[in-house]
């Protein structure tokens, strides 16, 4: 760990990751990052009502249905994780 | 941080070189008178980013921080010796041994013994336990036996006493009998002493001796088959005992052990018990030779513990317990000195002589045949165990090869061993071949090594050893581990730090061993329980933690099985600590789990001790877990309630105390749970006297506040009769309890003022408001509190009326108590109740008390005076001339103390004088004070300045006499005074004048003051420095910024960092008060001075400036951008750091004000610094980027970030992810719109299709 990290939140990377799920680290791969991006995006769509209503108009779905679909999509937003080469 | 320092140092070095070249070129000269000869080498070359990291001269800082409340000359402060220094200087560091600060009661922990392992029924399962293992039943049987013996002994001694009394009638009484008498009288106090007594006087009457004190040796010796021998009670001197006694416990003391085996007879006759060893023999170092077996022999023996001197061992008690118990700290010191002297005066060895003398010209002669070397015969005599020892004495072999100067180095990089450690770690010094040892021995050795490292090693050694012990705990096994650790904790010379470390080891190991600890629970408790009553708070917390972990690891059943026998132990100490340990178990495992057991114990028919302890456990639970008892309150009360009617007085007392603790913990709820005890309690107070009554009253005192108003009033009246009767009790403890109960009763709602006034007050004042009460600190406090509480009910007039006459009492402590009460009452309730007559008496009394005070603590009188005068307000007007007369007269007093008090009083009453429109009087006082500005005592001068300040504050600048234009020049020289109190008051006064009345003083005078103020920036007290920089602002406002700024900018060249930092703050404040445009040009121009400190100072000023001016900064951001560009590209780290923090403040100030272009430009300069490793720099850079996130939006910064998130180099990725994370934490939602679109892979969809939707 760098000396400079001793004083800020990055000093406890594990703690940081536990507290803020979407934070990343140097060993993060494309898939993991993309999953976070997708989930953050869906959370944001659900959280901003105007966005949600925009999407529901575009999809011709009720707002409740749209919210439900988004939440379902958060489960596996990018499909199954790719096989890791190292393991 | 350290890893980066070399880098900084290197750059600084280079810079220094460069500057030396530059310095010869530049022709800039500074006024050397003002700034001193410019020795740039000693300048600070870096400014840490944070305010609080400034550390001027370490020693100064240290001392000053500790004594910030004390004022005095700096030079004096510097010389104050600190405890650490002293210790280091004397060469003999006084170790902070636990035993040194313990009282006799706490030392009784050393009497405890580590009991043998016990059977763990959980692992054993259904099968009957091996007879060799001690089961619960065995332990209980032993306890019962012990108790029986105890009772027998008591009967015997009682009989003896009776006989003696009969014999007393006879005139001839032998000396012997007299002594016995003395011993016997101490019997009633406790079990320990009783044993002692009988054993001492008639050794043959204690057949159970051995059984009563199982030695720690049994821990190790509890091999199968031995138990039976132990359990029968051998007669002293019986041969069988000998081989059961564990000489072998002291590692490496094998010769001792065998020698011991050979002469079993002595053991029986001459073994003093450990207890007696401590109390009788060991206090006197004279007996050292015989009492300290280990180092008693020659120094050779002390250093090579492998060869234990036989005589020593056999003379003393063979048990390690005794061994440990026998060392007093004095003896150790004595030994150390002795050894030291011995080493210095040792005979020279042949090798040394060879080295000293030339090879030729000398001849080595053979000593004459008759010569027998005797070295330090006196010591040898001392070391020889004189009595009885002859057949056993062996002449220790002299070891020629030993090294005298340094203690024998422990092999394998082991830490230094103290002499007292040898008995535990001695085996490590034997350089045996590790491979030859059996696996068990190897394991043992390994544990010892690790423990030694933990105990005496350096922090890194300790850390790794601790980790290894933890990791391998299960591999080592519980037995070997605890058999090593626990005896160490019983070591009498243990120091706080060592104990802490060893306890930490236990904690870690516990965690790993989990259920394996079960057989050792009792042993661990014996060691840990004393921590629960330690006077050190952290030790207590530590003890609680361990016991709590232990109970979680071992489970409730094991804990109860381990502690049950101790509940009715004959020793009060054991019962006390056990009760506390049980309360910890209850809080760890939940009260409900423990309730059935507690119920059974509290109703024990067998012994009152068990009931007493059971009830005490409830008390300790209440104290420990506080309001969390509420859910279980009813069951806890039910468990103990019968104790109120117990036949034993001690049980009744503890029951009442437990109820008090429960009620206190439950307050203000839970009265319904106490319903069942109300009757016995109230009945009890009519039946009991003395201690029991006190306890009952205490319980009532805590229960009444829980009641509803109606009941509270009824029950209070019931108890009050008794309380009033007990007002007269001469017993101090009773007095305190009665006062407390009165306070509690009076404060409850249902008790009416009328009742208190008529029924309580007369007796209360007659009995308690007497001089004697003021002498004891605790009585004093309690009485004041109770009286204030009564006053809250009955009003000011009643109370003050009763005690006001006492302000003229002849005893000063009593007057002080009266004054404090009046102060508190008047502050609480105001003075509107006080009529004219009382008012007169009050002022008169206060004046008298104020004038007559002689003691050092003047605050009570001052506060009282201030409180009364302020509360009376305008009603004081008629008395003011008198008061001022007194003040004036006292200002002229010979004693400095009196003058100071008078001046302090002025500052207290200035506001009231204004209310009374006594401006003329105040003006007069102002002149008087002005005349006393020549005061030489700094404390007094400080008070006089404070008084002047309060007058100036109240009457304003224009009406002030003496006029401001006369006053201020008089203050200028006082600014030079280095006394903290003077400085603080003076700068406050000057600042106030600069703020409100600057126009009364010519500009030249203000400039003079500016120069003086620069010195004030050196002050240690932050308040003074802050007042100073603010004053700069006021002055600049009054006379314009130019001159002040010039002074300040010049001051950037001084050497002290603190001074420069304060200067930069002052510049920023000046800029803030006089608008930045008046200051910025000169400031930026100063940046051209090719000097590090100046440039950094300018940057720091800019940083503060933009912090202070906030959004006003948008007008100046373009002006300073080129300067910041330059600074951000500078080679010097500090330049970049300070510039980055300036950028941060700038960005935060102008967020949303349309300066994005400039900010992006600056971000481009900040960004390359993200790879800096110096902590200050990188922090400043990261904060600047955070500032940019706020000002520019997260999307912009994300785009900077994206380039490095998946960089091939890990170091780069780490930094970029760090930035990404803080970005994410700061503005997660804003990032959603800015994430890059990722391409899909064969199985995974990464694109965000929703964002493509379009209506």
UniProtKB/TrEMBL annotation, chain A:
Tree of life domain: Eukaryota
GO biological process: mRNA splicing, via spliceosome
Any one annotated GO CC term: precatalytic spliceosome
Listed InterPro entries: SF3b5/RDS3-10, Splicing_factor_3B_subunit_5
Similarity comment: Belongs to the SF3B5 family.
Name of the molecule in the record: Splicing factor subunit
Gene, per the UniProt record: LOC101504649
Automatic annotation (TrEMBL), chain B:
Disordered: annotated segments: 1-20, 34-59, 78-303
GO cellular component, one term: spliceosomal complex
Superkingdom of the source species: Eukaryota
Signal peptide: none
Localization, UniProt: Nucleus
Acidic residues: compositionally biased ranges: 50-59
Chain ranges of the TOG domain: 832-1067
Predominant subcellular localization, coarse grouping: nucleus
Mapped HEAT repeat ranges: 636-674
One Gene Ontology MF term: mRNA binding
GO biological process: one example: spliceosomal complex assembly
Biased composition annotated in UniProt, kind: Basic and acidic residues: 7-19, 97-106, 139-153, 160-171, 182-199
Keywords: mRNA processing, mRNA splicing, Nucleus, Repeat, Spliceosome
Pfam families per UniProt: PPP2R1A-like_HEAT, SF3b1
Low complexity bias: start-end ranges: 244-264, 291-303
Family designation: Belongs to the SF3B1 family.
Protein known as: Splicing factor 3B subunit 1
Gene name of the record: LOC101490836
């Amino acid at each position: 760990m760098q000396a400079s990290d001793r004083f800020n939140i990055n000093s406890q990377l594990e703690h940081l990751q536990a507290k803020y799920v979407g934070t990343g680290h140097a060993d993060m791969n494309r898939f993991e990052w993309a999953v976070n991006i997708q989930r953050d995006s869906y959370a944001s769509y659900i959280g901003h009502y105007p966005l949600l209503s925009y999407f529901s108009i575009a999809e011709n779905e009720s707002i409740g249905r749209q919210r439900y679909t988004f939440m379902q999509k958060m489960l596996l937003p990018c499909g199954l994780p790719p096989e890791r080469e190292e393991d | 941080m350290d890893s980066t320092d070399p880098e900084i140092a290197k750059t600084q070095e280079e810079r220094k070189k460069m500057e030396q070249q530059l310095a010869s070129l530049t022709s800039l000269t500074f006024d050397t008178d003002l700034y001193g000869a410019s020795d740039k080498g000693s300048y600070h070359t870096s400014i840490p980013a944070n305010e609080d990291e400034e550390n001027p001269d370490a020693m100064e800082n240290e001392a000053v921080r500790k004594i910030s409340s004390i004022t005095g000359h700096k030079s004096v402060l510097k010389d104050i010796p600190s405890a650490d220094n002293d210790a280091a200087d004397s060469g003999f560091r006084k170790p902070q041994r636990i035993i040194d600060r313990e009282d006799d009661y706490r030392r009784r922990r050393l009497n405890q013994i580590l009991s043998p392992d016990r059977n763990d029924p959980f692992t054993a399962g259904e099968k009957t336990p091996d007879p060799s293992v001690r089961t619960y039943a065995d332990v209980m049987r032993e306890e019962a036996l012990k108790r029986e013996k105890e009772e027998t002994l008591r009967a015997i001694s009682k009989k003896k006493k009776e006989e003696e009394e009969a014999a007393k009638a006879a005139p001839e009484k032998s000396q012997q009998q007299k002594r016995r008498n003395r011993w016997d009288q101490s019997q009633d106090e406790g079990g320990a002493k009783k044993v002692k007594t009988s054993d001492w006087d008639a050794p043959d009457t204690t057949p159970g001796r051995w059984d009563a004190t199982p030695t720690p040796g049994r821990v190790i010796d509890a091999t199968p088959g031995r138990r039976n021998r132990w359990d029968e009670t051998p007669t002293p001197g019986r041969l069988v005992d000998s081989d059961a006694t564990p000489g072998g416990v002291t590692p490496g003391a094998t010769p001792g052990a065998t020698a011991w085996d050979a002469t079993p007879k002595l053991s029986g006759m001459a073994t003093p018990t450990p207890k007696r060893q401590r109390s009788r023999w060991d206090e006197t170092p004279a007996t050292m030779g015989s009492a300290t077996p280990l180092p008693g022999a020659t120094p050779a023996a002390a250093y090579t513990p492998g060869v234990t001197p036989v005589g020593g061992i056999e003379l003393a008690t063979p048990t390690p317990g005794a061994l440990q118990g026998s060392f007093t700290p004095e003896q150790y010191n004595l030994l150390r000195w002795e050894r030291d002297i011995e080493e210095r005066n040792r005979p020279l060895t042949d090798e040394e002589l060879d080295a000293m003398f030339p090879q030729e010209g000398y001849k080595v002669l053979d000593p004459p045949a008759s010569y027998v070397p005797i070295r330090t015969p006196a010591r040898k005599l001392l070391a020889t165990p004189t009595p009885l020892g002859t057949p056993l004495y062996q002449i220790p072999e002299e070891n020629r090869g030993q090294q005298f100067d340094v203690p024998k180095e422990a092999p394998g990089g082991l830490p230094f061993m103290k002499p007292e450690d040898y008995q535990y770690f001695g085996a490590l010094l034997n350089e045996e071949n590790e491979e030859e040892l059996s696996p068990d021995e190897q394991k043992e050795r390994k544990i010892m090594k690790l423990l030694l490292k933990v105990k005496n090693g350096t922090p890194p050694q300790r850390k790794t050893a601790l980790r290894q012990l933890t990791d391998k705990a299960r591999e080592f096994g519980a037995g070997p581990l605890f058999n090593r650790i626990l005896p160490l904790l019983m070591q009498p010379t243990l120091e706080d730090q060592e104990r802490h470390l060893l306890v930490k080891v236990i904690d870690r190991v516990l965690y790993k061993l989990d259920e394996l600890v079960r057989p050792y629970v009792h042993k661990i408790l014996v060691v840990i329980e004393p921590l629960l009553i330690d006077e050190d708070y952290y030790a207590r917390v530590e003890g609680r933690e361990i016991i709590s972990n232990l109970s979680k690891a071992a489970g409730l059943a094991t804990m109860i099985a381990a502690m049950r026998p101790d509940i009715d132990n004959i020793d009060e100490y054991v019962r006390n600590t056990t009760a506390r340990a049980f309360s910890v178990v209850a809080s760890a495992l939940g009260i409900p789990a423990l309730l059935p057991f507690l119920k059974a114990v509290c109703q024990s028919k067998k012994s009152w001790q068990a009931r007493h302890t059971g009830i005490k456990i409830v008390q300790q639970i209440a104290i420990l877990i506080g309001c969390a008892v509420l859910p279980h309150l009813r069951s806890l009360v039910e468990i103990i309630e019968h104790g109120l009617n117990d036949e034993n007085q001690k049980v009744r007392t503890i029951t009442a105390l437990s109820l008090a603790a429960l009620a206190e913990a439950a307050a203000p709820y839970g009265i319904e749970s106490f319903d069942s005890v109300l009757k016995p309690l109230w009945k009890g107070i009519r039946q009991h006297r003395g201690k029991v009554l006190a306890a009952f009253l205490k319980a009532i005192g805590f229960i009444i506040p829980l009641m509803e108003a109606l009941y509270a009033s009824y029950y209070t009246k019931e108890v009050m009769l008794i309380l009033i009767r007990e007002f007269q009790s001469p017993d101090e403890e009773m007095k305190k309890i009665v006062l407390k109960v009165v306070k509690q009763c009076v404060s409850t709602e249902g008790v009416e003022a009328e009742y208190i006034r008529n029924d309580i007050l007369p007796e209360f004042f007659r009995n308690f408001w007497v001089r004697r009460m003021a002498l004891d600190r605790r009585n004093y406090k309690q009485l004041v509190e109770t009286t204030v509480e009564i006053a809250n009910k009955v009003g000011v007039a009643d109370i003050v009326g009763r005690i006001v006459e006492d302000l003229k009492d002849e005893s000063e402590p009593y007057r002080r108590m009266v004054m404090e009460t009046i102060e508190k009452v008047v502050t609480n309730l105001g003075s509107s109740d006080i009529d004219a007559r009382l008012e007169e008496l009050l002022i008169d009394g206060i004046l008298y008390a104020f004038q007559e005070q002689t003691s050092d603590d003047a605050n009570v009188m001052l506060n009282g005076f201030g409180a009364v005068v302020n509360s009376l307000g305008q009603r004081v007007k008629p008395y003011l001339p008198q008061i001022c007369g007194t003040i004036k007269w006292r200002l002229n007093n010979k004693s400095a103390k009196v003058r100071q008090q008078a001046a302090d009083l002025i500052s207290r009453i200035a506001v009231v004088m204004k209310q009374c429109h006594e401006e003329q009087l105040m003006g007069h006082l102002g002149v008087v004070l002005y005349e006393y500005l020549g005061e030489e005592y700094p404390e007094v001068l400080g008070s006089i300045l404070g008084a002047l300040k309060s007058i100036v504050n109240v009457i304003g600048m224009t009406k002030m006499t003496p006029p401001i234009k006369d006053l201020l020049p008089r203050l200028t020289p006082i600014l030079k005074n280095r006394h903290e109190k003077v400085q603080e008051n003076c700068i406050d006064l000057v600042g106030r004048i600069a703020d409100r009345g600057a126009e009364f003083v010519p500009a030249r005078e203000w400039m003079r003051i500016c120069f003086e103020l620069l010195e004030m920036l050196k002050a240690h007290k932050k308040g003074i420095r802050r007042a100073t920089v603010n004053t700069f602002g006021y002055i600049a406002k009054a006379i314009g910024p130019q001159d002040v700024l010039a002074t300040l900018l010049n001051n950037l060249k001084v050497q002290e960092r603190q001074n420069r930092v304060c200067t930069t703050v002052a510049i920023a404040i000046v800029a803030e008060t006089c608008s930045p445009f008046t200051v910025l040009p000169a400031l930026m121009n100063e940046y051209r001075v090719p000097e590090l400190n100046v440039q950094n100072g300018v940057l720091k000023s800019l940083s503060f400036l933009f912090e202070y001016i906030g959004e006003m900064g948008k007008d100046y951001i373009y002006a300073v951008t080129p300067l910041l560009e330059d600074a951000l590209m500078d080679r010097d780290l500090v330049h970049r750091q300070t510039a980055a923090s300036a950028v941060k403040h700038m960005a935060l100030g102008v967020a949303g004000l349309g300066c994005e272009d400039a900010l992006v430009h600056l971000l481009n300069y900040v960004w390359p610094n993200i790879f800096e490793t110096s902590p200050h720099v990188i922090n400043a850079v990261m904060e600047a980027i955070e500032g940019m996130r706020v000002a520019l939006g997260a999307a912009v910064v994300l785009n900077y970030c994206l380039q490095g998130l998946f960089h091939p180099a890990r170091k780069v990725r780490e930094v970029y992810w760090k930035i990404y994370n803080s970005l994410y934490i700061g503005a997660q939602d804003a990032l959603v719109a800015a994430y890059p679109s990722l391409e899909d892979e064969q199985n995974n969809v990464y694109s965000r299709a929703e964002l493509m939707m379009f209506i």
